[in-house]
Amino acid sequence: MTNSNVPMTLIRRTETSQPVKRRGLLNTIWRERSAYIMLAPSYIIFLLFSLIPTVAAVALSFFDADLGHISWTGLDNYFKLAQDPVFQQSVVTTIKIALIVVPLVTLGSLGMAVLIQPVGSSFQAFMRGVLYLPKVANAIVMSLIFLWMFNPQYGLINYLLSLVGIAPYAWLSQGSTAIAAVIIVEFILRVGQPFILFLAGLYVIPRELYDAASIDGANGWQSFRYVTLPMLTPITLFVVVTQTIASLQIWASVFLLTRGGPNRATDVVMFRIYETGFEFFRFGLASTQSVVLLLISAVFVIVLFRQFRWQGDYT
Amino acid sequence: MSQLSVRTSTAQAPAKRISGAVKMGLRIVFFILIALVFLTPLYWMLTGSFKEMTNAYVIPPEFIPKNPVLTNYQKLFVSNPAIRWIFNSLVLSIAGAVLCMFATSLPGYVFSKRKFPGRTLLFSLILVAMLIPESANLVPLFIIVKNLGLLNTYAAAILPWIVWPFGVFLMKQYIDTIPSEILDAARIDGASEWRLYFNIILPLSTPVIATIGIFFFMAVWNDYLWQYLVLSDPNMMTLPVGLISLLQNNRGFVINFGILMAGGLVSALPLFVLFLIFQGQFTRGLTVGAVKG
User: Fold this and answer.
1) ipTM exceeding 0.90, yes/no
2) Residues near A257 by Cβ (< 8 Å), separated by ≥ 6?
3) Residues 128 to 147 of B: which have CB under 8 A from any A CB?
4) pLDDT tens-place string over residues B264-289
């Protein structure tokens, strides 16, 4: 790459007959020092605020720490969590919600992207904007709006339901409907981005593939299954992985709509971490919870990558 | 044979055309309904912000406010330091975006165009950080910030995030596509490395950098949790934090949704404007990482 430097290295190497490993390394570092200088400010910040905290999070999980003191407890925190029914429930709830939201968002956005194909491009651009708008408004604002809309007596949603003859629900006061409410809000917030991605992905699929498929006698469903889906695999993988990671970290909608739900029905791990760490200030335990969440995310991501690589062999 | 095929094709054609039109009509209706579902909450926020609190609790809910009032906005700006909140949000978002653009393009350039010992390791660390959820770092990050004495400062609110790993990755990918010959030619002409960065790389990567800046601006403007943790001084609060403080002051009592909707609108409107202006940029930015080809 740095062509102007290559000749000099050659000259240096032939000039000395001594082993050049260490001198060469230090020389290279000195020669490329501007790279390190350019990298330094950002990387120092990265080290201080990204890497070290992650390592510290794992380390903290072995301590009992709060505002006043800190003491080593080894695996105690982990044992505590393993025996804590509240935490266990939050893990189950988090995974439950993720298992519902991710397919909903992925299939919903994919389905809509496919359905909107024949329609004109300005209408597509319009829908792109509309579907992404909630994300622009952000989770806090949307959750506040829905907090109002889900109100049992005055909320818009129960009013609209009553217009079609459905009795009002106490949305946020009942376990199952509270989870449904969180899922609805998350869906509205998150379907916009995958929709845009799938639209772009569908756009770049070459027409010839579909022509070849129809010559071979494929009908609509078959060409979808054997042309569209395989061609969308990279995007689908990206969407599923990012949506999964995001779903495991749901916090804002829970915090604003239900605060953990009627009787902890919507209690998710992220909310546990928030409460343990920043309302009870038990930093050690909160770190342990974060590590657990990290491990759960890692498991999901690994499983997903394995799954998709297997399917990707068809392209 | 040819006569037969002509007859069947003309017999089918009008039927196909009609069912084709119906299908298209259905599609459009379907999407209009979806658009309604997605736009209604936003419309609700808009009208809600002009409703007197008592009217916010009227049954049936008013679709068009009968007596639109500005009291919510008054309460928001007069009884609360909302202007201060907006100012803080603006400062943080703009400063954050600018810092982020440098903090991601510098490493992106270095990892892309420079060879140096440790390059792979350092870059891999950043890639790994991309996959780690932010929640994992919150607690230690808070402790670090506290011990550095940076609580309630602008620095604490954005510094931890400006080296956005995904942004660094994007920049590297993009700068990879810039031909090295340009850089070599400039080097031969005696340009320093900083010159190369400022006068060649930056201008050439403007699209990606702009996208990163816009997204980071949005992220900082909308961020709640970290800003809530770090900025507890009412004068330092940002818009989302201030809004939620309004909510928490009322919890358990009757919540004044009017003022919350007003606050929400103030928070969301600038971003809506940004989004509508830069919609093309947004779309390109969203798809640049995931779509191949």
Assistant:
1) no
2) A143, A146, A147, A150, A172, A178, A181, A182, A185, A266
3) 129, 131-144
4) 998 999 999 988 888 887 787 777 65
